[in-house]
Amino acid sequence: MLTIQQIRDAGVVGAGGAGFPTCAKLDAKADTLVCNAAECEPLLHKDKEILRNFPKKVIRGLRIAAERVGAERVVVGLKRKYHDIHDLLAPLLPSDFELFPLNDIYPAGDEFILVYETLGRVIPPGGLPLHTGTVVLNVETAFHLAEVEEGVSNTHKFLTVAGAIRTPMSLRVPIGCSILDCIEAAGGATLEEPVVLVGGPMMGHLVDSPRTTLVTKTTGGVILLPQDHPLVEKIRRPLRDTLRIARSACDQCSFCTELCPRNLLGHPVEPHKAMRGLLFGADALIPGTQFCSGCNLCARCSCPEGLDPCRVMQTNRQKWVESRERWENPPFRKNRPFIHMQNRQTPIPKLVRRLGLEIFNQPAPLDLERSNEISPRSVGIPVKQHIGAPCVPCVAEGARVAEGECVGTPPTQDGKSALGAAIHASIRGRVAKIADGVIWIERE
Question: Which of 137, 188, 207, 329 is deepest in the core (most CB within 10 A)?
Fold first, then answer.
């Protein structure tokens, strides 16, 4: 069995986007392990492509995790529309593994929604899957655990390149290469000056320079869009304008709340009340905003006025963080999902149409041959690619490093390693510079 220290030293973190150190997640006990293969963001395909190309390795990684937490049951949540992958996995799964067919909804990949859909368990507000006896693990994270067992550290990342790109595809690239390297590997943009969105269209962020933006352990997608795309215009809107428009246009229809995935779970998340607070000019802490997942469903699909309740919620959520106040014993309607969840879910096809992404909604198969051709002259390894403390470099400028060699470790606090995971060189070369939280390695 892999030890917690081995997992920490190998640098494995949640590859689904959160970046929580896997060593900490697996240092617990749970009766059930759920594999998150939902990949609910539109246009992204890398998780199902990993399953298609490396099913046995993913299963092995899940077995390692299940043994680590003592889980007697493993459930793989995969969308039912991927019939070919269901057919591929079914005969390979051990007897204590289950394949659960998920509906094609957003946000099926949110671990709160996933745990409810697969197990019928409801995680309490502000809680963790562990509060229901569950550990959730992303497909790619399971892949990396199997790699650790084979002596391979976390040096590469799977991601999807989609949108206005010549050949939409999924790739496996060295951590620390540039977003531009990924775009060029996929044939380049079909537009002269595309906007680059890193992540998915619902929760991703725009980047100014794909040449200087680095791939990290949590990068799941690169999407190219036209400058005048409505989604781009909405993301670019300044916060001041977002708040001003919300004050003037919100009619308190409450669609944002009625369709909020966390509200449907019975959590006290009510975006329309955050919007109401703006109408009254309030600048107070609004109860419930601290439990907002930031899924953006209210902003990009639910609101008939095209407003941005999610940004209002997240802005107020930050005020809760800064205040260090806590809402003790928040109301929790445990039976709500059994009443409303099924008939208020948002289908992905509807979401794609609402976002104006139909033209870009294409397959993106994993191209391992093209991935192997990606050979950047240099990589930048950020010291912080995870939840927790930034790593401390353990190499000096001028040092020669091999691919997979450790270049940074979590700091020690009170004789114990802080929450984090090690980082490693993704190419062989020389440490050219350590600056601004990045270890730069030049290929030799």
Answer: 137
Q: How far is 55 from 48, CA to CA, in rounded Å?
A: 10
Please state whether the predicted TM-score (pTM) of the whole model is above 0.90. yes
Q: Which of 356, 331, 312, 336 is nearest to 258 (CA)?
A: 336
Residue 151, classed as helix, strand or coil, is: coil
R_g of the chain computed on alpha carbons:
22
CA distance 100 to 79: 8
DSSP 209-266: -TTTPBP-TT--EEEEE-TT-HHHHHHHS-HHHHHHHHHHH-----HHHHT-HHHHTT
Token pair for 276: 């109401």
Q: Which of the 8 DSSP states describes residue 321?
A: H
**Orientation of helix 309-323 relative to helix 239-249, angle to 10°:** 120
Q: Are 193 and 180 in contact (CB under 8 A)?
A: no
- Alpha-carbon distance of 15 to 71, in angstroms, equals 21
d(CA 343, CA 358): 24
Q: How far is CA 39 from CA 26, 54, 138, 328, 422, in A?
A: 22, 17, 9, 33, 26
pLDDT tens per residue across span 268-301: 999 999 999 888 876 789 999 999 999 999 999 9
- Strands 438-443 and 378-382 come out as antiparallel
